[in-house]
Amino acid sequence: MSFTIRSIENNHESVHKAVLDSLITFNDAKVGESGYRPTAFAIEDERGQMTGGLSGTTAYGFVELQ
Description:
- By secondary structure, the protein is α+β, with helices and mostly antiparallel strands.
- The protein is 30% helix and 33% strand.
- Strands 1-2-3 form a 3-stranded antiparallel β-sheet, with no helix packed on it.
- Strand 1 and strand 2 form a beta hairpin.
- The longest helix is centred in the first third of the chain and has 20 residues, at 12-31.
């Protein structure tokens, strides 16, 4: 069996989701339900305009920010 690794320029979100879904399924089977959940925090000015923010995930009681 041979494999090829290639960079994905377009539609990378579908590849990311497929890899992440497989990893979550594997980890949940090995160590229990992770409670994986995407999350985001918006930083807004006094007019309610977003000026920045954080995105990340929660799983196993931890927060990972990007």
